[in-house]
Amino acid sequence: MSTLDIAGHSPFSGARLTAVAQAGPARTPREEPRPVVSPLRLTRRGWLVLVALPLSLLAAASLVVGAFFTSQAQASSSPGNFTSTVHVNVAAGETLWSLAAEYAPQRDPRAVVEEIVELNALNSSTVQAGQSLHIPVAQP
Question: How many domains does the chain have?
Answer without folding.
Answer: 1
